Amino acid sequence: MTDPAAVHDLSDPAADPAAVAEAAAAVIRERTGVERHDVALVLGSGWGQAGDLVGETLATIENTDVPGFAAAAVEGHSGAMRSVAVGDTGRRALVYGTRTHYYEGRGVRAVVHGIRTAAAAGCSAVVLTNGCGGLDPAWAPGTPVLISDHINLTGATPLEGATFVDLTDLYSPRLRALAQEVDPGLAEGVYAQFRGPQYETPAEVRMAKVLGADLVGMSTALEAIAARHAGLEVLGISLVTNAAAGISATPLSHEEVLEAGRAAADRCGRLLADVVRLV
Fold first, then answer.
1. How far apart are the C-alpha atoms of 163 and 62, rounded to whole Å?
2. Which positions are catalytic?
3. 264 pLDDT more than 80
4. pLDDT tens for residues 104-150?
5. Which pLDDT score is estimated for 258?
6. If you average pLDDT over residues 67-86, what whole number do you get?
7. 115 with 126: CB under 8 angstroms?
8. Is 195:102 a contact under the CB 8 Å cutoff?
């Protein structure tokens, strides 16, 4: 017999990820007082301040109060989710101040739980942001880049069993076009997700470049796959926080990631706010 206490434990093989997402969405509805949210935002490293410019926060919920969620595990992330008014449109954004990374060891189900919860809460689109290493020397720290495609180097997937999902246009051409209308200077690139938590070696970066990557990081790809499976339209935006290993002689550090985010907060915040109004 299944232990009732394990029902919301995503690490338990007996747990049903869809049921846990529905339970989480029910708590969000209760705590925010609205039946559905329209778009979800996942704020990655360096994006915390940018998220403040999206709109007025009408409700804040600690992650630990919602089934399947955990406290923030990375410095610079907020361990809470917010229900944010999208301008005067009457629409709501569900803004996650953190994400679960694959390197935390909680399993892929936990990594994509926020995405499945967003779908259960009514969202039709998700904006996935991250801080990453850039392979193009022209992209200085603080440069936002649209994700046009990804390379999943984690060796994992959020899909279970014979679940075949077409990823041909995973990163929505429509949403990318909207983002480029908002900020015509936006470049596009292919993002490669490594497992982490260590930064990539120069040799790994060279390998990623040979494979076709322009950006390297430790998130996003698994969430994007889960979003497509859940029927969400996906927009991915990377903030180049540093040159990837071997591209620059400067050693990599998480403080550099946070500083790049602070420097780019205004541009990225306005970009997020304007894009969310159009999604």
1. 32
2. 200
3. no
4. 999 999 999 999 999 999 999 999 999 999 999 899 888 999 999 99
5. 63
6. 80
7. yes
8. yes
Can you give the CATH number for the domain in which 215 is found? Answer: 3.40.50.1580
**pLDDT single digits (tens) 190-227:** 999 999 999 999 999 999 999 999 999 999 999 999 99
Tokens of 45: 């490293």
- The span from the CA of 60 to the CA of 125, in Å, is 20
Q: What tokens were used for 235?
A: 């927009």
Is residue 273 within 8 A of residue 54, CB to CB? The reply is yes
pLDDT at 53: 83
Domain count, the chain: 1
Residue 1 has pLDDT above 50, yes or no: no
- Domain of residue 97: give its range: 4-278
CB 132 within 8 A of CB 216: yes
Highest mean pLDDT among 11-20, 45-54, 120-129, 252-261 belongs to 120-129
| Cα 246 to Cα 109, 133, 148, 211, 249, distances in angstroms | 33, 11, 23, 16, 7
β-strands 143-152, 187-193 pairing = parallel
